Amino acid sequence: MSTDKHWEKWGKSSPYYGVVRLPEFRETGLSADARQHFFQSGELYVSGMFNVIHRHLNPAFRADRATDFGCGVGRLIMPLSRRARSAVGIDVSPSMLEEAARNVTQEGIGNIEFVRSDDGLTNLHGMFDLINSYIVFQHIPVERGMKLAEALLSHLSPNGIAVLHFTYDCNATRFAPTINWTRDHFAPAHWLANLARGRPVFEPTMQMNAYNVNRLLTLFRHCGIEKLHAEFTDHGAHGIQFFLLKAGAAE
């Protein structure tokens, strides 16, 4: 898949900027201040996520086993690991996973496993009390992303919680799939688009894809979700973060 190749290019050339697009994260070797800022933002995200879960879904929720889909360099899986017995980071980019492993070793964390993603999530085993994915699905073409979301939710334990983020409006038009295809398959078009936006000419593509909310809700019901809480997000594109509680096991 072309998006996988592009993500691996980000992993090799600018892994932190590929995760959070701020100028201070563009270089592979982050300054001490930039590194602190980067990982502190992950801690703030996870802390806020648990606050929302406790407030709206389950005040007593605790995660025994957690996973982060699209873990990148480990920004979110590391704070998740501090709140769970074990954690699994999953990403499609080998270079991202290698950088994440280095970060985990540097922090002395011993309860995280990293696995490479594929369309069937065949390397992800077992069930999880908590599944997270943030600012990831937006970079995956919709039909592929819907199948991945379904596969991911099949690993959610009864009474478990999934926190999944999707973009529903990224200024996409009905021509967006054609534009994405052209930039993916005709390099000069992508180079010109980068120049027009004031970006480095050979910077890899980072697709933005808008998901249909009705289709997502139908998928959640199909996957056994019995309760949800949703919050709007805006990070240059309009999105929704879904907090999903799966029904308990039948007695």
Automatic annotation (TrEMBL):
Example GO BP: methylation
Keyword Transcription regulation attached: no
UniProt keyword Cytoplasm present: no
Gene Ontology MF, one: methyltransferase activity
Residue ranges occupied by any Methyltransferase domain in the UniProt entry: 68-160
Signal peptide range: none
InterPro entries (alphabetical): Methyltransf_25, SAM-dependent_MTases_sf
PANTHER family, per database record: TRANS-ACONITATE 2-METHYLTRANSFERASE-RELATED
Protein known as: Methyltransferase domain-containing protein
